Fold this protein.
Amino acid sequence: MPPSTNNGQPPIAAAMQWVTRITTVSLEMSLPAAGGYWLDDRWGTDPWLVVVGATLGFVVGFRHLLQMVDQANRRELAKKKREKR
């Protein structure tokens, strides 16, 4: 059996978590722009809804990235506190 990571998970589980996170953020960033493109094509409002969708996608995706970083920092701080005891 392969060695486990620091939190007791096998490496493949940790890799799958990262794949899920990256996929989620990439979809959060790209789907609003794609939806804006589709609506622009349908309603003839070029390029405004693509711009709105891309901006919205960037804000949502970046916010999610910041939340993930904050969670990782909190886990790391909790781990260091446990190790000091």
In short: The chain has two helices and no strands.
